[in-house]
Each structure stands twice: as C-alpha cells, then as structure tokens.
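Q: What would this chain look like folded?
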Amino acid sequence: MKSLQILITFLLLPLLASNTSSHEYYVSVTEVEYSKEQKSLQIISQIFINDFEALIRKRFDETITLDIENESDKVEVYMKRYLQEKLKISVNGNYVDFNFIGKEYKDDITYCYLEIENISDIKSIGIINRILFDLFSEQQNIVRLKLLDKNRSFLLVPRKDNCSLNFE
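A: My prediction, written as structure tokens:
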C-alpha cells in the first residue's frame, strides 16, 4: 500500500509542479493593426502578468500587485511609463507617441491597449520593442504587423530589438 502511495505521488508530482504560475518561456506579443476608417494604429501588447508584475516591483514599487480586485491606481501609470520607454514606433521615419487606452487581464496575460491617432498615410513603419529585456536576458518579443494588406511577423531579441516594414 505504501509503495502505491509513493508511485501515485511520483506520477502526480510533475503535473503539480507544471501547474505553477511560472513559465519556461519569456515572450511577449505586440500586434499593430492599421484602421483606415479611424486613421489610427491600434496596438495590443500581451505580456505575462507575473513577468510584468516582477518588472514593476523591481523598477517602481515593491508592493505592487497586478490583481484587478486589489490593485493600486498607480499600476496603469507605471505600465504606461514603462511601455513608452521600451516600445518605440516610427511612421514614415518619424517617432510617434501612443495613447495608453487601458489594460485587462485574461488568464495569465496582461493585455495593454494602445493607439496612435491621426495616421493618414503610411509609407513605412518601424518598431523598437525592448519590453522585459531589462529583466530577462532570454526574453523574446514577437511583433505582428497588419497594415495595408500586408501581414508580417518579427521575432525580436535583445541583440536585434527592431523591425521595419516599407510600403513603397
């Protein structure tokens, strides 16, 4: 009977260990889509909640918790400040500022909604994405561009943190 309990424990341990909040891969996904009707670039950055929380704690406030039920009003301020520093977008060779629309949590991902308004003509777009590079050396950032009938994806890493797409 005891050997059966040990066997069951041995078999269940990997399942229990894999169900923790940590993960093996450090990756974010940023999607940039152009809306002709609204003449804006609409951006969604997806970042693991526990990674974003660790970053905000290290950089801004050790007491912060990313939890919609019990969250400081400063969280969005910190997120906006960090994203403005680490995510740079240029249109037609000129850097443009984005508006931080808001965020939401789904499963273990933070979805940050951003927008760049008054974009009527796009000849080229460039993205620098250094999100979480300052926390994880193995961080990878996927950038997906959906603009003017072109769909392209790029994998950015610390040694190559930028991508561009030309439409001319």
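The chain has a mean pLDDT of 86.
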